[in-house]
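Chain A, query sequence.
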Amino acid sequence: MLRKTNTQDEDSEDDLDIDWMQERSMRMLDDFSDVNEGEKNMMKLWNRHTIQYKVIADKFVPQVCREFCERYASDIWSQCIRNNFVLHLMNLYTYRIVSSRDIKVRVERLWIVRVLKLYQECLAIVDAARPPSPSSSSSSKIM
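Chain A, predicted structure.
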């Protein structure tokens, strides 16, 4: 089972300063000049997610990808980095860390999240455009 790092206020030389690590990771990613902003944003999200684990063995990466997708699906869509996420999954596949089925399930889940969000937005538009319903007292009067 995966173990997340301890985020309690315990002081130990073995504890990691998660905030410092995240900040350093983001600064280092920003320093790259040969990658686009989408790639940087994708890796910032990925690093923010994976930094909570002290060690991730290859066999746990599919689970970490699932958790990442569940947690950041909306961010992936809002930042327009879906293709970068799929490319990241393909790189993991190239090194045989995730399976083609893992990729298929993650991409399907991304689309499900997107469709549900669009459906909710459509419902909100329809509800806003719907005229108020007539009161029950005026509908009961028949001439």
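The CA atoms of residues 2 and 60 lie 7 Å apart. The chain has a mean pLDDT of 83.
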